[in-house]
């Protein structure tokens, strides 16, 4: 029977007087109107008509009332011209909609014919001009049907109605109600399956909707053996039902039973395949265009990843992995978390629900490997709410162990099988040797049976030991990730004077296969029981001070990172000379770290610093930099006039302090992007607040190490995000009102970072190939080429040409080999210094430059 056509006599069985329905609506409206000044929606529980009259009607009368409501609502909406709810007709329609929702949500005993007539009415009438089927309470009615026919068969009439409802749901699916549609389709499929199969039969459950994951995963399900497939149907059915931020213990127990029935290895292999598919899956961009009545055309893009229903299912499968703590599972879940929190333009995280599930699973997994990955993700993920959630998990894990968060992060660092920076594995008669060569860098070499070296992987190893080879490569990747993560974590330790016991330092730093590579290249304070402090660095397995004297550290009781702000100028100079003399490259800037002490101006301003004020920055770049250094910031847009968004802040819980960097919007014509976010911002003061009292703190009361690190961060933001660093900014238009700023910054006074570069260049340049033609002059590295003389600004890296100070625009090309890469630098991470050196090498031989964009400028005098 085609229930779409069964509308002619839709009310033929209705015996209730229509006047009684109208009266119920009128009385409810009248009562509700006296209680509410504004009439938006209607809460029937605040009236007497619903609980005392309508709710007591027999079910057949309620069904008739529901059918009458459908026609009444549709009639009203077809004639509506405004969105106002001020007139009586609009308010009564709100009452009618409330009644229809209430009738479908409350228990209602239905006959099959009632269901058909209601589905028929919902599909025939429109609740809104843009109506899709689910603007009616179809989901609530379907829930009634599922409950009432759960354990009993139904006739072909109802079966036909359900099938046609499914067709309509597929036909009228939109991105806005996709999740609800897909869930209803799943319920209908379940009812139809039960009606035609034995009660013991397992309903096929697959990924729903039309997205790349459903296509990929369902294909793998189809290829499984029948017995495995049946268990997977049960696993997916259970996972589809998950909800909330965390799994229930009941769910974890039930899914564990099903995993055991399937086999843990089979479960992990399949889920890992699906997870890796998601990790590699790119979101799909779709361009839309809308033309207003005025003729203005608005173009925008939307992005899709996977359907929300399938995201929920994946969430359930991720939670199921909390039962595993093997390396492959932990690393896969961590990689999926990072992918899930990747930002999509104009939307936010790709799949926050999946990402949050990954965080829980890493926290809940046995052992400390999951905690180690949480620590890594804390540095990788930029969303403030996600960082707060990770902090919560780390604090909880630390509390369970009775240690601090810093200590549990130390304890959780994976060594990837390394021993003191290297690893040796035998493959039959061949030997694989892995060595750490730098931060994020390793080298894999092979030794033949005769002892001769071999660079490439032996062919028979690829064939015979593919699984072991993959595990080796996974461990190498883990080691490289760990090096970067721990370098960054230790760098942030310089914000606070953290002390650890000598035993803790020895176990989790010096004896650790990866941490030892970092720790032995840093300068440490060794605190003795008599309060004496000595500094040392490890060189050739011997601890030495800055004067190259061996140091016995056995008397030390505590260890902390050395910070140059604690030392005299002579001590800093000695440490720098030590590093250069021994060609020892530090994994982070320590001896060569910029330090920021209070200036006379800051003593005068007392509670704030204007040292980093009045700069013009690219807002999006500033936002990325701030979040990479753990600062909180919200992009400012033209739509909010900058309200409540003009501050970047850094929490310093060890000192009960919060640092703030004030930011102002740059309001100019065409100065926003397509989403209304300002392209540029200007900077203001830096200040500190006591988080306990909320009061401003005098700068002289801020610990010197904290003040220096905060100002160093801010200097980094300015040094990288300033438009003065962009050699093309003026030529591309820029902001006319700020062109003087570009000139002043590009060739103005040096920041602390630039002053540090100047000291390094003064030491380094005379020993380089360009030494005879390059000298330091004030703020510039001056290079005498064959054709002209060039002045490279040590701060911005921009270039002027003598004799007329003509500007030379050179945009660094990362695809070209940089001659500066082979030069020893005593630390890693200063890209600006590398840019200066690469430009100097290029311009020293300006007569052989072939790039016409450069040569045309050089020849123009």
TrEMBL record:
<dbReference type="Pfam" id="PF13569">
    <property type="entry name" value="DUF4132"/>
</dbReference>
<feature type="domain" description="DUF4132">
    <location>
        <begin position="451"/>
        <end position="631"/>
    </location>
</feature>
<dbReference type="Pfam" id="PF24879">
    <property type="entry name" value="DUF7737"/>
</dbReference>
<feature type="coiled-coil region">
    <location>
        <begin position="462"/>
        <end position="496"/>
    </location>
</feature>
<protein>
    <submittedName>
        <fullName>DUF4132 domain-containing protein</fullName>
    </submittedName>
</protein>
<feature type="domain" description="DUF7737">
    <location>
        <begin position="754"/>
        <end position="858"/>
    </location>
</feature>
<dbReference type="InterPro" id="IPR056639">
    <property type="entry name" value="DUF7737"/>
</dbReference>
<dbReference type="InterPro" id="IPR025406">
    <property type="entry name" value="DUF4132"/>
</dbReference>
<keyword id="KW-0175">Coiled coil</keyword>
